[in-house]
Design a protein that fits this description.
421 residues; 13 helices; binds zinc ion
């Protein structure tokens, strides 16, 4: 089966069929839950992102999913974004709001200590919850939800560092897309008359001009093709968006890099420069894969449930031909699990060998254990893409699989297997 057929069912149907996520009217519209295989996919994705961020010099923080209304008044969300926010909750004389974004919390964390130019760039990252009061009519699956887990980060830097930091964030997005087997279309999102509602954008023409010029430089230097679109900016600044298409061809934004001169002003952020004076940092908002929900929905549709091996909920399915090989199959799956691989055994109680191989067609690696393999301690692998490497000692086969998984990417095997189709 090819890895990327042209047409896949939408992620709702595949999500149900593959047992990844579900919804229940009693929990509520737009509030999906994650089943064990879906949770494995999500956890793997989240850990991969954290790992990329650690290696790129980001520090991870946690901040609460709600805050006082005043916090969002300062950030500008209350004025410019209130239609998408939940109503405030009265609590002991204060008003508390489910947060519409993580930015204000990270600005406050920046402000929690004195900062010198030597501390910059300070890259704060968080995979955190945020909330959007979507109307129930537009909710569905993982793409229109009311509770969002966002892969977010804010880079606080000097004006001279903005270009390199934004370029590095854009490169991180490209690396992640390569490993995830995704392709996107780059868009420079500008303010303009096409905004959703009047008064959408903060008024500061000079700051907008500087941010747009910087993002254009970053895009031009990257060599990536891009289009510009008016009316698609954030209320506080322009952005580079990476657009992906769903099964029906509808585009949405997955990843983003934004340059923001506005919120550092609103929160009165500063750092001490080499000259000993107080300076205003710039805030770069960036997300590599956007919300976990939307990223998972897109991955499900893009791969038709046949995920890259490192991401697959089950990486290796072991099929004993008959009950006599069950122990040998179990031993192989246990060795795989000890290597950190996700393996399962499907025995004859699940049907004929052909039916079991067919049922596991989305699993990247399958191993059939007959009397000969069980006696020799060998494994004959069948790869999802049709490759059939020569039989290998079990330990060698698991080493090869584990090395591919650790390397990420979409290739299933290093070197040549023997293609059967
Ligand atoms: Zn932000």
């Amino acid at each position: 089966m090819p890895d990327h057929p042209d047409h896949h069912p939408d992620h709702h149907r595949l999500g149900r069929e593959l047992g990844l996520f579900g919804t229940d009217p009693l929990i509520g519209a737009g509030l999906p839950y994650w089943l064990p295989d879906g949770a494995t996919l999500r956890h793997t994705l989240e850990e991969d992102i954290r790992d990329r961020e650690r290696r790129a010099g980001y520090r991870h923080v946690y901040s609460p999913v709600l805050g006082k209304r005043e916090l969002y008044e300062i950030s500008g969300h209350w004025d410019h974004y209130r239609d998408d926010m939940y109503p405030a909750m009265d609590l002991g004389g204060e008003q508390v709001v489910l947060r519409p974004s993580l930015c204000p919390h990270h600005a406050v964390i920046y402000r929690s200590a004195g900062r010198s130019h030597r501390d910059l760039p300070l890259r704060l990252a968080e995979l955190g919850g945020m909330y959007r009061a979507e109307l129930s009519g537009v909710l569905g699956g993982l793409t229109r939800v009311r509770a969002i887990q966002l892969n977010d980060a804010h880079i606080f830097c000097t004006p001279a560092q903005v270009r390199d930091e934004a370029a590095a964030a854009l490169a991180m997005i490209g690396d992640a897309y390569r490993d995830l087997g995704l392709t996107g279309r780059h868009r420079l999102s500008l303010p303009g008359p096409g905004g959703k509602y009047s008064g959408k954008y903060v008024a500061a023409p000079e700051l907008w001009r500087r941010s747009v010029a910087l993002l254009r430089e970053v895009l031009d230097a990257s060599g990536l093709p891009y289009d510009a679109a008016e009316g698609e900016a954030a209320f506080y600044g322009p952005k580079i968006d990476v657009q992906v298409a769903d099964a029906a061809g509808r585009e949405s934004t997955l990843s983003t890099v934004q340059i923001d001169f506005h919120q550092p002003e609103r929160f009165d952020l500063h750092y001490t420069g080499a000259d000993g004076a107080r300076h205003r940092p710039v805030m770069i908002h960036r997300s590599i894969i956007g919300s976990i929900e939307r990223a998972a929905a897109h991955l499900i549709e893009r791969h038709g449930g046949a995920f890259p091996a490192w991401l697959a909920p089950v990486q290796l399915t072991v099929h004993p031909i008959a009950d006599d090989q069950h122990d040998a199959a179990r031993a192989l799956a246990d060795r795989a699990a000890a290597r950190g691989l996700r393996a399962e055994v499907t025995g004859p109680e699940h049907g004929t060998l052909a039916a079991r191989v067919r049922a596991a067609r989305r699993v990247p690696y399958q191993a059939v254990i007959g009397p000969r393999e069980a006696a020799a301690g060998h494994v004959a692998l069948r790869l999802r893409d049709g490759q059939r490497p020569d039989p290998l000692p079990a330990g060698d086969a698991l080493d090869r699989i584990a090395a591919r998984v650790a390397a990420r990417g979409t290739a299933l095997w290093d070197g040549t297997g023997h293609a059967v189709r």
